[in-house]
Amino acid sequence: MMSKEMEKVMSCVELCKGVNGGLDKVILRGHRRSSVQVYLYGGQVTSWKNELGEELLFLSSKATFNPPKAIRGGIPICFPQFSNHGPLESHGFARNRLWSIDADPPPFPTHSPNKAFVDLLLMPSDEDVKIWPHRYEFRLRVALGLGGDLMLTSRIRNTNTDGKPFSFTFAYHTHFAVTDICEVRVEGLETLDYLDNLKNKERFTEQGDAITFESEIDRVYLSTPTKIAILDHERKRTFVLRKDGLPDAVVWNPWDKKAKAMPDFGDEEYKHMLCVEAACVEKPITLKPGEEWRGRQEISAVPSSYCSGQLDPQRAMLFG
Predict the structure, then answer these.
(1) Which domain of life does the UniProt lineage start with (predicted)?
(2) Which residues are catalytically annotated?
């Protein structure tokens, strides 16, 4: 018999068909007009709206919902490889596989009460094993918090029966919707080392007091703090990204030339998006049979002031 608490959760969760391609998706509904949409294809969040119904994630107007093409925007899951940091296809294969709803997941550790959530499961097909010869269980919980926060928790377990460990890299490839990329700054990564993917992964040290944008950027920041802030000056909004188990952070915007070269990305859309991604890239995660890794990302969107490039003190105290 279903508990009252579970009944409340289930009433906030709807399984339906997407208008694009008719793929299955799950809608999580929160306070007022807040919601999250998750496609079973890719286990991918494609929409996150606040209580005013404002979209907080970027999804390209040219995104295709036709497997095996990955969906451009939202939060693709990069596993078991991020970008071309390894032998597999760029960003691995989890983002273009069909996930299932996990009807009987093991208990997930919760840091805050959830308004609504869905548990997804990805396991390797025989075809997957041919290109990456390992057995695993990848469990993903997508949750909409009572305050409208979006939480993603990943649990990956090595289920190999041959005694072999495996290694992987990982990222939550989060596309934030911003008003004007030239009026955005990222705080929390200053003074850190990064690998520049535009310069053959050469290592540099961040010199600015914040990251601002005036050209293409594709960097992997190393040994990053658990909290990063993305300030959208035009909208007076701050995204606060918290992460656990993911030591790196990727910052990416394709700018004009690469935007025009991507068929599923609008020519001018680079102005209205920024990827800041909780990731593990530099040092791959290695699991022995039976071992499990957990990685978590939580993002909040809050009003913010823009005062001498510093976070609003009242908001900083709130999230301290």
Answers:
(1) Eukaryota
(2) 173, 277
Give dist(CA 86, CA 99) in Å, integer. 23
Q: Which residue has the tokens 């969760």?
A: 13
Lowest mean per-residue pLDDT among 38-42, 66-70, 272-276, 289-293: 66-70
**Is there a contact between 165 and 289 (Cβ–Cβ < 8 Å)?**
yes
Q: Is 62 exposed, middle or buried (0-12, 13-18, 19+ CB in 10 A)?
A: middle
Question: Rounded to whole angstroms, what are the CA distances from 140 to 155, 235, 270?
Answer: 6, 31, 29
pTM above 0.85, yes or no: yes
Average pLDDT of the segment spanning 100-119: 81
Compute the residue count for the chain. Answer: 320
C-alpha R_g of the chain: 19
Distance CA 105, CA 53 (A): 30
> Residue 318 burial by CB count (10 A; 0-12/13-18/19+): exposed, middle or buried?
exposed
Q: What is the pLDDT of residue 47?
A: 98
- Among 215, 225, 270, 216, smallest CA distance to 246 is for 225
**In percent, how much of the chain has pLDDT > 70?**
89
The residue ranges of DSSP E strands in 111-216, in sequence order, are: 114-122, 136-145, 150-158, 166-172, 175-177, 184-187, 193-196, 202-205, 211-212
Beta bridge partners of 72: none
CATH number of 13-179+244-296: 2.70.98.10
Which pLDDT belongs to residue 112? 58
CA distance 292 to 166: 11
Class of residue 292 by CB neighbours under 10 A (exposed 0-12, middle 13-18, buried 19+): middle
Reported as a single tens digit per residue, the pLDDT across 34-86 is: 999 999 999 999 999 999 999 999 999 999 999 999 999 999 999 999 987 66
Residue 317, amino acid: M
d(CA 102, CA 96): 18
Residues 6+ apart with CB under 8 A from 59: 46, 47, 71, 72, 73, 74, 175
